[in-house]
Structure formats: C-alpha cells, structure tokens
Amino acid sequence: MIKNIKCKMVLALSTILIFSLGCIKQNDDSKNNRSLLATMFGKTTQSTMKSVTKNVDLSNEPVGFRSIQVENEQNFDERVNVKQRIVVPSVKFSKFNNSSKGIVQNAIPPECAGSFVSSLQPSAFVTFLETHDVDCVDNFVWNYDQYSNSIYSQANMLAVVNRFGALAPFYNGRNDLKFLQLFRVFWAGFYLKYYYPSIPFNQNQISQTLITPMQIFANTVNFLDGTEIAGEILNSFFTTANNAGIGHAIYSYILSFLEITLNDPQRLTNSYWQSNTLTSVFNLISRYTHPSFPQFRASIDYVLIDKLKRFSLNTNFHTDSQVWIINNAIYDLGLIYSNLSTFQSAIVPILTDVLTTYPYISEPYLWAVKALTQNSDCVNLQIGQICLSQTKTAVKSAAFPNTYSFDDGTQVVHTPLTLNAIQPLYHALKQVESQFFRIVGIHAPVAGDPTDSISMYVYGSLKDYKVFHPFLYNLPTNNGGIYIEQDKAFYTYQRTSAESIYTLEELLRHEYAHYLVGRFIIPGMWSEVPAYANERLTWFDEGIAEFLAGGTPKEIHPRKVLVSQIQNDGSSRMNVSQVLTARYGDFKFYRYSGNFFHYLYTYKKDILRDLISTLRGSNISAFDSLVTQMSQDASLNISFQSYLDILILNIDKLADPLTIAPDLTNLSTNDPGIIQSIFRASLLGYQAKCTIAVFGINGRFSCRGSIAGTLRSSQDWATAWSELNLKINDLMSSLETNGANNLKSMNCKIGEIRFIKYSNLFYPSAIYSCEGPLPSRTPIPYVHPAQDQSDFRDTSFGVNSTCFTVTSPGSGTTCNSPLGTIGFPSTATYDEMYQYLNGQFNDLKSEVYTMRPPLYRRINCGLNSITTVNQTNGTKYLVATSTCNL
C-alpha cells in the first residue's frame, strides 16, 4: 500500500501556506522560484498573502508538505470531522490563474524513485542527495511504501546527520552545499515516523544527534540572510527542528529571527520564503506550547512574550495581505495564556491592548476575544467585561442581518443578501432535488436520519467569510464553502468571478447535493460510519455533488466550467482508476468525478443505480466490489476518455447553471385544486392528487400519481428508467402551456421502478411527484393524528392505515399500514416476494413524504410482522405492517 503524505491535509497548527511549508520546489538558486511565481501569478512582483484559517486534527502533530496546487482552494468545498475542530489562523497566496496551461514542470529523472534510492548504501544515499535537485528528492521522501524502511534506515539517517554536521559551519546563505536536500530528509523522515512508528530509525537518537549541527548551522554569519533562497533554507531549518522535536534547542534562534523580522519587516514584503519562515516559526511556537514539549515550555520567557506583543500591536500589518501576522501572534499568545499560567498576567494586558487598538469585530479583535475567553464566556478587563457570547451575537448581526425561512422552516437562509438575490438560489436547489430523486427512486429519508432541516449561512463577501466564519463556528475558510452534516448546516459566501470560477449558485447546488446524499442515501453521519472509512467515498461524495449541480427541471447537463478545466488539462487527464481512488488534498478529481457520474448517467445507468442502492443498504462490500470492477475495467476507461473527448468537442454548446426565479407575485393560481384539475386533464396526469406541500413566503403545491411504460419481454431497468424519465418530461411539457404559469416552474421526480407481470411480458411502473410554486400563504394548523391518517390513506398502498397519538417516550404520531403482495407461484422465493413487498413499503413512505415534506420531515418507518401466507390453490404471498413514526 502506498500512502503519499504530500497531500495529507493534517498541516498542523498555527500557520500553513496554501502551497504549504516549503512546497514550491526549485533548483539551487532563487531564479527558478521567481520564474515559477511569475508563471503562476502572471507578474514578477512579490505575491500577496491572504488571511485564512485551517482545520487540523491534533495540536501536537508535525508539519507535512503539500505539492503546489494549480487549483484555487476557494473554488472548492471542504468536509470536516466535527470531532476534530481545531481551527488555527493561516495564510494563502492571492488567487492565480486556474488554468494549468503555462506551468512548466521539469521532468523527474527515473532514478528519483523509491525503488532506486532504497537500494543505495548510506554514503551513496548522501551523494545522491547532493547531486539531485529538490524536485527529485520530493518525489520519494514523502511516500510511505515498501521502500520507506530502507530509505529511512538508521544508517541512512545517521549518514545524513553527519554530512549535515560536516557542512554546517560553511553555510553561506546559498544552497550550493545542498542544505535544502539534506533538510528535506529530516523534515519528511520525522513526519512519516510520527504516523508510521515502524519506520526503523531511532527517532530520539537521531533528533539528539541533530542538535549540535543545527546549532552550529544557526551560528553562521549568513543564517538570517534576507534573500529568497536563504529564506527557503531558513524555513527548512525551523520546520526540521519542529518535526524532530528539538524546538527547545533552537529557542534562541527563534527569538533572533523574530527580532530581525520586527526590525526589518520589509523582508516579509519582498520574499515569499521569508514570510513562509515566519509562518513556520509561529507554527513551531504554537505546537510546542502543548504539554508534549516540556523543555520548550520551560524555555518560554518574557522576551518571547514581548516579541509576540510587538507583532500583535504593529498596526502596519493590519492590511488584507499581512493581517495573518497579527492573527498568528495573538493565537500564540492565547496558547501560552491557556497552557502556562505564569504568563497570564503579562498576556492579558497585551490582548486588552489588541481590543482597543483594532476596530470592533475586526480579525485581530476576534482572535483576541477567543484567546481571552478560552476558559469562560466572560472576562473582566480594565476596559470592562468582554463576553464571547455577546461578541458572537454582534458578529451574527453584522454578518447575517437577514433570515429567510423557506419550506415551513426546514430550509433557513441567514445572509445579508436580499430576498430577491436568494430566490433564484432556492429554486435552483429545487431543480437539484428533483433530479436527485429521479436517480435515487426512494423519496423518504434513510431510517433514523436526524437532518430534518438545513440551515444555509451565506456571507456577503469572501472577506466576511474569512473574518467572521472561524470565530462564529470554529471552521476553516480555505475553501469555497463547507457542509457540516452534524450541524445540519452549510456555509458559503457571495463571490466575484475574480475570487472563484464557480458562482454562488453552483456552490449552493453542490453543498445541497451533499445534504441530499447524507439524508437520503447514506445512513449515519459523515465520517462516523464505516462507509466513510479510508476516504472510500471521497470520489463519490464530490463527484455526485458536482454532477447534480448541473440539474435542470428536466435533465442533468454537463457543466461547461468542469469540461473547460479538463480541456486545459491536455494530456494529463485522470483515468477512471485515479478518479475512484481520489482523496482530499488535490482538487483535480472534482471535475473528473463529476463528469464520470454524468458518463454513468448517460451510458451506464445500471452501475449508477447499483452504487446508490448498495450505499443506501449499507452494503459496503458490494460497493467496494463495484468500484474495484470499474477501476480494473480498461474498456470502461477508454469509453470514459472518449466521452470526455466528445464533451470537449462540443464545449461551445455547454453552459453553467443560471436559475431564474418565477415571479411569485404574478402566479396564475393559489389553489392546488385548480392545479389538480389541470393535471387530470392531461394524458399522463389523469390520476393526479394535489395538495399544499409548503406554506410561507414560498408556497408550494405537490401533485403525485403513477406512470407506466410499455410492455417488454425483460425487466431492463435502464431502458425502463429512460422511458419513464421521458414520460415525466412529456407531462411537464404538456402542462407548461395550459395557461397556469405555476406549472412553468414545476419540478418532477419519479420513484422506484417496479416491473408488473402481464401474461409473459412485463411493464415498468413508478410513482411520480411534481411540485411547484404557489403564492405566499399563511400556514394552517394540522390536527393530529387525523391529518396524518387522512394522508396515509390517500396513498396507493396505505388505504387501510390507522394513525394514533403516542405520548411515551415522546409526543408524536404513529401510523400502521397493512401491506400485502400479489399472489406468487409456489416456486417463488422469499426474496422475490420481499422485493415486491419492500417496493410497496418504499412507495408508501415516498408518497407520504412528498405530499408534505415539512410535516413529515421526521418520518421513520419500518416493516414488521412479515408473514408468508400459503393459499389452498398453491400460490403464496407476503403480508406485513408498515409502522411509521412521525
């Protein structure tokens, strides 16, 4: 098993650049780094840095390495385990050209592989490092695989330490002695050792042996040079000390670097790597305040406190590009405050000064409030009492002055945007939802799902997202949005085209698809059930969300923005196997997995159905088997690549979602009875039943019925689905021009397809549900359980339902519905009969739920008392009771 640690998202602690620590690789002088930056940013001037926040797992983890990202992280969403919310200040570069064209990467020589390097003896290993560039070294040092134990042998590590010790006195501020390559082995070696303790070198012995050479190196005249290449070497020095666990041994050099930076802040403006080094030092300080590092904690003194104070209160850093410096200094002061009580009396006045120096609810202000209120909601300061809860209330009022409640409170939007700006987004989500249910079939939530509502927090700008979001919800901002299933909420922001290639609508469509998948396909919470183990579902989660984001009322279209990115990839496309094993940390797979779903939707509907059904049934082994089969199917990959060729060839015919909301003040009718009459006058909707599904500012009607396909000799699900999908679209088209404009903004879905035997043939049948806009309506009170029983009895299989009020353990309604299959011949298996019974059960749940989704949002049903009844004529059937708790 190969595990590439480059893309591991555990970039511990206080400050990590978007390209991470030391990841822009170069040869042995700074000119190549400059040319790469110029290529990326289209200019030769220094790059700007932006304040963001990162999410890390544990506060004492070592620092990893991320390869250079062609993608802009603000284009993409993120999934976070709520149990591991440690949010820290971080920085990122300003947005660069998202196209991968023009980025030139040197070819990596074939010997730069673990298979070759692992065969070298220690002296030859050192020689190899000194005769190859950093690109080559990075190609093998970060992988954990069958070669790692040989590469990181005790003998190899000692040889590198000894060579470093021999060269350390001669450091001249350049990399002609290959210090970067030597440091890389320490950096990566200690990092891998943390996660894979079986790596054979003796961590304690190597780290202790490294102390003296590190101190000799730091005592050289050029140690604190302000050039670009010296900055990269300096960054490697501090990160090596961090990962090696010897931060205490270089404490005085941390102080020296902080002092020279305070005295000459221009070195940060002029150099990417000098700024990167400052983040590494902040990172080291924050990590080493953890109890795991008692020697460093014992070294912390008022000199360090004073330097952090000077960074915290330097208002020259209070700009969009450098506020991260202030934030990180405050963060480190906060960690020292909470971990070392000795310094609390010195730190409180500093943080108080921060509160009075910077504007109310600015980034530094909020980081200071968080630091001061770690142990209690309120603290009494010389300037008065400061409370976390009160500050959060003020921030929420500033960030989200408007709250719009849709679908009887099951969809709530918090935002500064106007209702007119939100309405198209609401209707866009309805399109995504209808197409989702067409491919899923079952329209009721998975058993026991708690996400019966969704809150959407839409910040007014990217800046507001970065400033307010981590303070309010302790979530990272190095993303385009984030869905937290456990919170029943997703968070994003209004953006400009310069900030993201995706619109707010596309992002909301994507996040809403995550919500639908969690509620209607996968039982259990994200990251908390076996299905999510080892990032098994990463490609599935993001792929189906990108796919569904292209949903319209009648189809799911390929999105031009995704196909354009694939076109820009040229020959460096991902194959199917790479798509299906994709992991978070590299965003390239988003566009491929999204289009792979569209490929399955177009040509392999059976596979798409099976993937969904195995997950809904928690049959993980069957899901894994399907994925393995696809990964190993060469013909499938050839077909997929040809499909991508066709998309690129027709790219000018593609578009991206842009929803226009209906004029809710000018709808033809507010009466679902009139809608029902129009349905029943149509060829396909003659049996429709319509109700009011939703009240409030966006009223909705719901109409449901059943559709059937033509007779056929086989139970071909894919063909049947295409036929019924076409029929439901025909129904929509026929109703669009009937004079009631409510129906022009209608969305429809179809249920599970069941095959009905007729003589020796079969015809497919499915329930359908259509819903659309009504004018704003005042909610009417429902009388329970009478309304529930009436609704259950108004379904295809619930005519004999009985509903009653339950008072224990909690108040609610339970509805029992007797179900029975048709008669089967004596040769029929139990599974055949159960499949039929389960189809009735699913249709019952789906019909009830789609009738009034907000009312039945907590529906939780089970089949009980399943019994086989044998008849005297030799046939048999199943009976059971569906019990639904509401």
Explain the overall architecture.
The N terminus is likely disordered. A hairpin with a 4-residue loop joins strand 13 and strand 14. The protein has 32 helices and 21 strands. The longest helix is centred in the middle third of the chain and has 22 residues. The strands form 6 sheets. It has a 6-stranded mixed β-sheet with strand order 3-11-12-10-9-8. Strands 13, 14, 15, 16 and 17 form a 5-stranded antiparallel β-sheet that branches. The protein folds into 3 domains: 297 residues, no CATH class; 252 residues, Glutaredoxin, CATH 3.40.30; 105 residues, Threonyl-tRNA Synthetase, Chain A, domain 2 (2-Layer Sandwich), CATH 3.30.980. It is α+β, with helices and mostly antiparallel strands and 886 residues long. It catalyses: Digestion of native collagen in the triple helical region at Xaa-|-Gly bonds. With synthetic peptides, a preference is shown for Gly at P3 and P1', Pro and Ala at P2 and P2', and hydroxyproline, Ala or Arg at P3'. InterPro entries: Peptidase_M9_N_dom, Peptidase_M9A/M9B. Keywords: Hydrolase, Metal-binding, Metalloprotease, Protease, Secreted, Signal, Zinc, Zymogen.
